[in-house]
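RECORD TYPE: inverse folding
INPUT: structure tokens
STRUCTURE:
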């Protein structure tokens, strides 16, 4: 831009000067202006163009660099005074305590960007206290930052929970507690009944699960075990989803199939079952055409070894081809393995090891570990599902075959209380194949552990089934009353309606595709759009979850500090490397844009003098005309 403007100004001045010189030469000698006046006008034209360019593009002025000390929430006055010595600039952001700001004699600023505009010589930041708020992170992107993070507060510092769950599915809540004396947490349903307990691992992480039966918005509660007065709200909106479509094939009807069908119906799954009775007679929903179009309508096929042998080669090939396209497939071992069972496993990429006397036929599921698409490895590793009711009856033993399941590229799907693997899965194309070495899980229901039975099959189905879930509207992070929230994966133009009818219209964020900003004026449930089936989103009070707020602020500032350290060490973007904990060196030169007004005044004076010489001072130095 500057080069273009300079070129245009130079061409204009050259054209005007050439025209004026030619006109002066053509004039009669008696009518010509004095030579010195003509030379002054030419010089003033070039000077005016140069001054106009300097007004539009003023040069950079060198200034001495300085260090800015920034007081944030939790900063004490003594620490601020100690850090603000020398040539440091001491400022305080709105979150800093008023008494500490007054005692440290810091200058209050509305935000970091304002402080940097008022002090352009600041080349490095020293952040004191809890860290920078989200509004200040962008302003500090390109500066050298020193930050010593404070310790995290006690209690909940991380929380992950889905805002929406399919009715009949499982709610999974994970997170991290910091410095909690009692190493156990509980998840309560809306009625106040404990649904799950878990022990914290060495890092304080946990994973809790609970079945979601009813539709509509509900508030679960997370608390430290035994502390009835504490708890954190876990809002969940349950509604009908796309529904996993299940194909159940069995060689004969039995109680396991009966209770598996009942669970699928209660969980809202679309079920097609077929059970052979022999002699060409069958029960269930009729035979299935094993062609690509029909199989693409299912998400998971559960087949026992007898049904697999009865399918025939063509049907088995069609099933394996459907697995490569995304279908999940589970082979259930329901009896003593014979040659046909071992052949079936070989076709699926598994094999059974020799009988191991250490593997008891009776299995106790005191701990169920599953591999879930949505769970991080750390979360899955600390999963410890325990009976919610301390007075519940013991878990009944289930049946298994004492043969280990082997496959070189497989992962555990289910383990017993001793850690022995009961089921494994492996990827195949876009789908997953599993072998399930457990039978008589219906005993859990008969023994009063229907919730555990539902959790067992819900986890397995969620791991193996074809993923079909569409993106659901959600807040990016936690939405709080009176604070900016980011709403994503929603239809543009859809209003956010509070319980009292207040309608908010999210403002699209050009930098985030599919997301928009909204400022909730109420806390509680909000409906996204109109209609009974509209999704519900929860807005927390402004002071909710202080531990999460402290960790997010701390981690964001640490990332900025780490990035600035990396730039200093590598000299990225032409920035000279600086010591990590020191301010910019004394001989480092910062620059800022010089003020425009002196150049404008000079241009105005030059233009006025040029006009006067051309108009008002025409007779000065001219040769008098002869009569």
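DESIGNED SEQUENCE:
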């Amino acid at each position: 831009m500057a080069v273009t403007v300079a070129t245009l100004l130079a061409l204009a001045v050259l054209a005007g000067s050439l025209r004026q010189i030619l006109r002066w030469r053509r004039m009669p000698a008696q009518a010509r202006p004095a030579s010195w006046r003509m030379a002054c006008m030419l010089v003033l034209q070039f000077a005016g163009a140069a001054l106009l360019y300097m007004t539009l593009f003023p040069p950079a002025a060198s200034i001495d660099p300085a260090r800015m000390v920034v007081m944030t929430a939790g900063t004490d006055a003594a620490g601020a005074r100690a850090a603000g010595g020398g040539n440091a600039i001491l400022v305080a952001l709105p979150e800093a305590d008023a008494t500490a700001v007054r005692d440290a004699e810091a200058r209050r600023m509305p935000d970091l960007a304002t402080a940097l505009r008022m002090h352009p010589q600041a080349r490095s930041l020293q952040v004191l206290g809890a860290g920078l708020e989200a509004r200040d992170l962008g302003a500090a992107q390109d500066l050298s930052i020193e930050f010593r993070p404070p310790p995290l507060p006690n209690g909940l510092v991380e929380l992950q929970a889905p805002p929406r769950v399919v009715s009949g599915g499982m709610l999974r809540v994970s997170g991290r507690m910091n410095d909690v004396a009692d190493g156990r947490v509980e998840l309560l349903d809306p009625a106040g009944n404990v649904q799950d307990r878990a022990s914290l691992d060495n890092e304080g992480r946990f994973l809790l699960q609970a079945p979601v039966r009813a539709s509509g918005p509900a508030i679960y509660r997370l608390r430290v075990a035994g502390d009835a007065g504490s708890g954190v709200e876990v809002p969940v909106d349950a509604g009908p989803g796309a529904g996993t479509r299940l194909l159940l094939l069995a060689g004969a009807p039995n109680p396991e199939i009966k209770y598996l069908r009942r669970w699928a119906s209660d969980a809202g799954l679309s079920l097609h079952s077929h059970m052979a009775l022999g002699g060409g007679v069958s029960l269930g929903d009729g035979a299935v055409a094993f062609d690509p179009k029909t199989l693409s309508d299912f998400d998971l096929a559960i087949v026992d070894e007898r049904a697999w042998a009865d399918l025939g080669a063509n049907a088995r090939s069609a099933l394996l081809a459907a697995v490569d396209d995304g279908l999940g497939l589970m082979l259930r071992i329901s009896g003593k393995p014979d040659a046909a069972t071992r052949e079936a496993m070989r076709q699926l990429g598994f094999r059974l090891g020799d009988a191991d006397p250490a593997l008891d036929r009776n299995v106790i599921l005191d701990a169920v570990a599953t591999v879930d698409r949505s769970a991080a490895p750390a979360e899955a590793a600390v999963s410890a599902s325990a009976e919610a009711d301390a007075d519940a009856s013991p878990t009944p033993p289930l049946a298994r075959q004492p043969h280990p399941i082997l496959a070189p590229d497989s992962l555990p799907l289910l383990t017993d209380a001793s850690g022995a693997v009961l089921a494994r899965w492996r990827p195949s194309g876009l789908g997953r194949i599993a072998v399930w070495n457990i039978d008589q899980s219906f005993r859990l229901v008969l023994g009063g552990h229907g919730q555990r039975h539902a959790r067992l099959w819900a986890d397995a189905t969620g791991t193996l089934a074809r993923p079909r879930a569409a993106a659901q509207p959600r807040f990016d992070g936690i939405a709080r009353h009176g604070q900016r929230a980011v709403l994503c994966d929603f239809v543009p133009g859809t209003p956010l309606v509070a319980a009292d009818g207040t309608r908010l219209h999210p403002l699209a964020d050009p930098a985030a595709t599919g997301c928009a900003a909204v400022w909730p004026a109420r806390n509680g449930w909000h409906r996204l759009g109109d209609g009974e089936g509209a999704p519900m989103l929860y807005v927390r009070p402004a002071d909710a979850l202080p531990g999460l707020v402290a960790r997010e602020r701390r981690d964001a500032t640490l990332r900025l500090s780490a990035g600035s350290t990396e730039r200093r060490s590598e000299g990225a973007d032409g920035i000279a490397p600086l010591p990590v904990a020191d301010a910019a060196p004394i001989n480092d030169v910062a620059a800022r844009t010089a003020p425009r007004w002196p150049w404008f005044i000079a241009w105005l004076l030059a233009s006025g003098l040029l006009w006067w010489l051309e108009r008002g001072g025409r007779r000065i130095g001219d040769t008098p005309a002869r009569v």
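NOTES: The longest helix spans residues 2-26.
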